Structure formats: structure tokens, C-alpha cells
Amino acid sequence: MPSALCCKRGNATTAETSKLKFGNECRDKQPWKWLCKNLLLCLTILGVFLGFVIGFIVRVYSPSEEAIMFMSFPGDVLMRMLKMLILPLIVSSLVAGLSQLDPASFGRIGSRALLYYITTTACAVVIGIFCVLVIHPGDKSIKGKLGEGEENRRVLTIDAFLDLIRNMFPENLVQACFQQVQTEYVPKKPKPVDLRPGDNTTMLTTIATTVVTMVNDSNGTVLPVDEFVRKLRYVDGMNVLGIIVFCIAFGILIGQMGDKARVMCTFFTELNEIVMRIVNIIMWYSPFGIMCLIAGKIMELPDLAVTAQQLGMYMVTVITGLLIHTFCTLCVLYFVFTRKNPAVFFRGMLQAWITALGTASSTAALPVTFQCLEENLGLDRRVTRFVLPVGATVNMDGTALYEAVAAIFIAQMNGIELSAGQVVTVSLTATLASIGAASIPSAGLVMMILVLTAVGLPVSDISLIVAVDWLLDRIRTSVNVLGDSFGAGIVDHLSRGELAKHDAEKLEEERRLAAEQDNNCIEMDETGLGANRRPRLSRDKIRMDA
């Protein structure tokens, strides 16, 4: 008996020892397992870190333009590859996603996404205005140190709004792939005058009138709008908004046609799969490209110490507003609607966030955002394929906050106290400008003209804040990507029941059709027409679709 007891204890001890040893081995292998699983993410973070280190070290030696060009070249190649995929990715993802939705589900998903866009953009603008009024980074002495700005083109609110609608409905779909329409003002041409020989008075009067009309005053102010005429011209840049509107209509109609358009649905689905595989290949090059992008941008900057001293509080204000919006608006909204941990969601989005931080383009980061949401977080493709492309175009939370802060900062630099009505005007125009801003690097500076013109602030002062825009542009772009991603997570959670119900109804319909075909085949066999019966719908196919 004692021997048996000893044997039992010995076995237990051996089992416990083996279990403990196995647990230690698992713990020892866990970091390597995590590293292998997240190797691309680790390489991207390392690339961002090395980019800052190399940039700050090399700039001490005053690199030449050729050295900066060669350092930035691999990053330019990365941006070109990502932009190359924007058009096929948006077209295939929208059409493939919407073709699998019924109109009712699309309407509910679209209304939820639109409500989320409006809410978060309005919150971002309010947070930005609150931060800039409380911190008050602007002062007249700052403008004295920065000097005078350079004149920029004129933009009116009504023209920006009409251009937004014009770009939604492009007259040429092929042209929309590389150009978009824009309103500009050109000086009025003087009327031709019939100069007669000896009529010097008429000639001198005409010359004087022309000079007064075409030249600025002695104060250097711009000509009034009455002296210009509106003209529509096409500028370089993809009209993403027009392409999205067309693809939405195209995808919905494919879904309504059912089996007649099954070939088209399959084509765009497979095209989207091919594009995503290309994205996976490019992503392994992205750490090196992002490192070169950041290092090259830091190397070409002017004196950083002077810039930080002059615009340091402005940068702190913008970054503070972006942090408050991220944690107090996006994370809170996600937790309220989904009851899930925002930190877990952000961890799954880390690769897309770092890519946006390095490329400063939410559209260029769109392929990575798809990958993170669908593979890491398991969101429904039908939701992400609609919410993300639209959000990357019209949902610019970080840009809206940045433009509101910059407009009031410029007013503070010029000693201008904005009234309550002007502050409201800034908030509304900043929201509109963020919708119309292209999802490309530094697009917010262009739309800043619209915000300043709406409240009568000097447009020329925009050039004074360009020195720090390279950093703020990357941070606000990463916030834009997070806003789109959190919105996709919220819409996916709210729409999950409806999508599951739609899938169940679709599966039941396919089973009913299969049963009808089976019954028809049995009847045809009984009547002796089995040789001419139609092929049955495979039950394995039904289970695979389910």
C-alpha cells in the first residue's frame, strides 16, 4: 500500500513537473510567436523610429539636395505604388461589397455611417475651437518673428460647395480618374479700344484704366471679386468622390439584378482579392519606404529649433485637440455603441495607423486599413468595403479640427477678436472644407483658404504655418484613419443582426430553389425526360455560400 501510494505520488509529481516544464517552454516561445505573427508591424514601427533618428543625425551635416533626393526616393516609390492601387481598390471594393447587400440594408448602413461622419466631424471642430480659445497660442509678436506671408489664390464658400457637387457627378468618368473640376478667378480683360491716329487722350485714358484695373493698390491688397470672373478648370488629382458615387450606384444595381449580374459580381470580387494580394506584397516594402519618407522630410526642413520656438504652442494646441478627440470622442463612441474595449480595437489597427503616420495620406493607407479591419478584427467585408472608401473621402475629423485651430490661430496672430457668429462660421466652413479636402498630403492647407476667406482673415498668413505642417499633417491623417476605422467598427456592430438575417434569407432562398430543382428532376425522371433535365444546384455550393 505504501508503495502504491508512493507510486501515485511519484506519478503526480512527474505530471506536475512535466506540466510546469511545458508551461515554461510555452512562455519562452510566446514572445517569438508574437514576433513572428506581428513581424510586419514591428518592422514598420522600427522604420518610423529609424526614419526620425537618421533624419535628425544627417541634417546636422547639412546634406545636399542630391542626398535628400536619394534618401526620399524609396519613399516616393512606396507612395507611387500605394496610389497606383487606389483606383482599382476603391472600384472593386465598393462594387463587390454593395452588390451583396439588399437596398434596405444598404440604406440603413449608409444612414448610420453618414450620421457617424457628421457627429464626429462636428465634435472635432468644437474640440479644436475650445482648445485654441483656452490655450490661446497666437500673439502679435509671433507674426513679427515669422514675417509676412505669401499671397494665395482666392476661394469662396459657395464656389467650394458647388465644386463639391460638380465633382460628385463627373461628366467624363475616365477623366475623373486623374482630374477634378475647380473654380478659379481670372482678371477681367480690358475692352479693346479703337485708337485713332492723333487721339492721345483716348489712348492715355485707356492705359490708365487698364493699370488701375489690373494692378493691386499701393497697400498690396488683392483685387475685389468684382474685378474677376469665375472660370472652371480641371486640376490634376483623382476625383475620388465622383468615382465613389458612380461605384455606389453601379454596385447597388448589380445587387438588384440578381443572377443576371452574377458574372459581374464575381469579376469585381475576384479583382478585389487580386488587389489585396498585391497590397500584401507591397506592405513588406513599406517599412523601408516609410523610413526614407520620414528621414527625407526631416532632412529638408529649415532650422527646427527656431520653428519650434515660434510655433511650438500652435503645434501643442493642434496635437492636444487631436488627442482629446481620439480618446474622448472616438473611443467613447466606440465603447458606448459596442461595449468593447477600444484599446483592443486600436491594437488591431496599429499597422494602418503607422502607415497613415508615415505616408500622410488616408487614401494611400486605405489598403492596409482594409486588411487590419477584416483580418485582424474580423469585421464584415460588406460593411468595410462601403464605409472605408466613403470615409476616406468625406470623413476628415483631424483635418476639420486642424483647420478650425489654424484659422483662429491666424486671427490671434493678427490681433483680430472673432465674434460668436464668426466662430460659428469657422466651424461650419471647417466642416465643409474637411469634406471637400482631397485625401492627399497637405490637402488641408489648400482648403484652409476657404475657412479664412469666410471670416475675412488674411489668406497670405497660411504660408507662415507651412513649416510645421509636415508633422501635423501626419498626425491628423492618422486620426482621420482611426475615425474611419472606429466608424466601420460601430456600423458593423449595429448592422450585424440585419446582415445575418439577410444571409439566412438568402440561404433559405437558395435551398428552396435547390428543392424545386430536385422536384423537377424527379418529375422529369418519372415522365422519361431525365436525359433532358437541367443540372441540379449543388448542395455543397449552398453550404459553401452559407
Helical percent range?
over 70%
CA(first)-CA(last) distance: 60 Å
Major β-sheet strand ordering: 1-2
Shape: globular
Estimated structural class: mainly alpha
Query: Low-confidence segments, ≥5 residues, pLDDT <50?
Result: 1-28, 203-225, 530-544
- The quaternary organization reads as single chain
Descriptive report:
The structure is a single chain. A two-stranded antiparallel ribbon has the order 1-2. The chain has helices at 2-37, 39-58, 65-84, 86-98, 103-135, 140-146, 157-168, 200-214, 240-257, 262-283, 286-299, 304-338, 342-348, 350-359, 366-376, 381-394, 397-413, 420-436, 443-454, 469-526, 539-545, and strands spanning 179-187, 228-236. It starts with a helix and ends with a helix. The protein is 73% helix and 3% strand. Mean pLDDT is 78; it is low at 1-28, 203-225 and 530-544. The protein is built from 21 helices and 2 strands. Helix 7 (157-168) runs parallel beside helix 18 (420-436). By secondary structure, the protein is mostly helical. It has 3 domains: 39-178 and 237-501, Sodium:dicarboxylate symporter (Proton glutamate symport protein), CATH 1.10.3860.10; 186-230, no CATH class; 502-545, no CATH class. The protein is globular.
Concise summary:
The protein has a two-stranded antiparallel ribbon with strand order 1-2.
